[in-house]
Amino acid sequence: MLLIGGLLDQFIPKEGIEGLYEAIRPYYGAHEDRLKLKFFNVGHAYTPEMEAEVIKWFREHLMEKYRET
Q: How many domains does the chain have?
């Protein structure tokens, strides 16, 4: 699971995203590589850099799994 957010977001504060990350982290156990938290220096926005991070995540973690089935 990829969690991304803006450090300057006034609608969804980073503390909320960090809390979610910490709450679900124990469920990933030996697979922590499948859980990632990344912040960008923006407000409540979806930037090209964020989109690139999402695409990279899908390619690394989902596309390979899809090809195997």
A: 1
